[in-house]
Write a structure and sequence with these properties.
Number of strands: 4
Structural class: alpha+beta
Helix content: 10-25%
InterPro entries: CHP03829_YokU, Znf_MqsA-type
Bound molecules: zinc ion
Strand content: 25-35%
Shape: elongated
Largest sheet: 4 strands, mixed
Radius of gyration: 15 Å
Order of helices and strands: EEEHEH
Mean pLDDT: 91
Protein name: YgiT-type zinc finger protein
Distance between the termini: 49 Å
Pfam families: YokU
Organism: Anaerobacillus alkaliphilus
Number of domains: 1
């Protein structure tokens, strides 16, 4: 049983949410679809801090498909990692 992060309710449901996200370099935004989220009858639907963090990290670490303005959460989490070692040369 999950509890709401914001209020005392304990009858939280799982849902998904579509959210715009600013890319780490700040130049653009991407719409991330079907993000696992929580639904509270009092507070509405929202992402957990853990999910926010997971998406921030994924956008920083992973190679997004070129030119796509939207990506599903599942596509993002299965995208290949950037070759960060190239940057250190
Ligand atoms: Zn709530």
């Amino acid at each position: 049983m999950m509890e709401c992060m914001w209020c005392e309710r304990k009858d939280i449901e799982e849902t998904t949410k579509d959210c715009y996200w600013i890319l780490p370099d700040g130049t653009d935004a991407v719409e991330i679809l079907q993000i696992p989220a929580l639904l509270c009858k009092d507070c509405g639907s929202y992402l957990t801090d853990e999910m926010n963090h997971e998406i921030d990290m994924a956008l920083y670490a992973r190679e997004l498909p070129q030119g796509k303005r939207e990506i599903t959460h599942q596509e993002l989490m299965s995208a290949p990692y950037r070759n960060i070692f190239e940057l250190k040369k």
